[in-house]
Amino acid sequence: MDPQVKRALVSVSDKMGLTDFAKGLVAAGVQIFSTGGTKRHLEANGVPVTDVADYTGFPEMMGGRLKTLHPKVHGGILCRRDDEDDMKSAGEHGIEPFELVVVNLYPFEATVARENVTDEEAIENIDIGGPTMVRAAAKNHRFVGVVTAPSQYAHVLEQIQKNGSLTLQMRRSLARDAFAHTAAYDAAIARYFAEHDGASVFPETISSSLKRVSELRYGENPHQRAALYVDSKYKDVSAVSARQLNGKELSYNNYLDLDAALAMCRSFERPAAAVLKHNNPCGAAVADTLEDAVRKGMEGDPLSAFGSIIGVNRELDEASANYLARPGLFVEAIIAPSFSPKALEILTTIPKWHANVRLLECGGTKFDPSLPCWSLRPLAGGALLQDADVGVDSEEDWRVVTDKVPTDDELKDLRFAWAMVRHVKSNAIVLVKDEMLVGVGAGQMSRVDSVEISVKKAGERAIGSVLASDAFFPFADGVQAAKGVVAVVQPGGSKRDQEVIDACNELGLAMIFTGRRHFRH
Predict the structure, then answer these.
(1) Among residues 163, 127, 156, which one has the least CA distance to residue 4?
(2) Can you list the domains of the chain with their CATH numbers?
């Protein structure tokens, strides 16, 4: 039988929604015990509260460090109602059982995120009593419900008002959330110490708290199960946190492509569009207007663009929406900082579009350089952690190594090509003309094969285009296969660099070495 909720221990840092929740508990016959700021907040709002110090006979001390760490508190949380010895000990020592513990923790992450925060301030915001009560209640969830977030208040109160108790299923669910809550809290503290005291930029251990927000229809293939998890601590814009305005449920593959599309288009200051298929760009462009960028992006490889994912770095406007809604065009999803009202109307009312096209509003595309940016790749039995390959490369180390020097127009295309090639699976080759992606060779075991594929994809547009390679050409055959190309940008660094330079000079090509590689495995 589910224990009737008669006594609740309440101690929270986040007071959002607390007054209404506490008043609802009192109305349901629950006696509330509290301390410090929580007690004062409840009393100021007319909620009757029993001071924990009056119950334990032990005052708060040490600047508030010692409040709830007392046997009468933890005995009341941990005692098992079906254990004779537990109940006998409780009776002998005047321990009252608590059926509900409502606790959220000191705002450690918010504190250390402030500018100029001192180490002393950080340490004083490490909660001790809170996690101890949360873990005790979660451990004893057969008899105790533990509430760790304001978002849980309504559902918990509804059950207590209806039944006077919480079901075992709810208590177990709350316990699971509670352990995740304390794990994430400890991970944040460990990160703080690692960042401030560690000899290495990489933490000794990696702790992550990801919350499942949905189960997907399937994974990469129909026989694979899949779910979406969200990192609540991630502060940058993302496809995961974007608001879906229209369309069917997103698939596993949709999320992968939307993530890549957002990463590509946010690399540029000017209006930009990226067109994705299978996590590689089949088209991309920058232009003076978003409509032109979208048009050029879709025209990069119209055949491959059927059923694509599109990312843009500006509000999607009416002109761009009209272009995308043309008969015969089929797009799976669009991610943008926002959609104009007219664009939203166009894309959600035109036949064959409104029911299916997934529209995601991500709120922005600017990188925040102050945020840590890591790339974590899971392996069977472990993981790899590295700096994420984001941001714009400096051209200070670029150098022209051929007799021919790129023209201003060719240099514009080379910059765009170099910004795009990092987003293509290695071995990666891209061809660009008029700041528009016209050919892509992705994921080939031979760099020459990637060159030949990109030239074939570009067709006649290869004539006068520029080429970017994510890594050096080991032999001259790579540039020799680049039919129609007029300029090349690549990292350099091969033992045979001079052979490649000589080949470019013989072909009349300009070539730049950047000194930086952009593998994407």
Answers:
(1) 163
(2) 7-197 (3.40.50.1380), 239-361 (3.40.140.20), 399-513 (3.40.140.20)
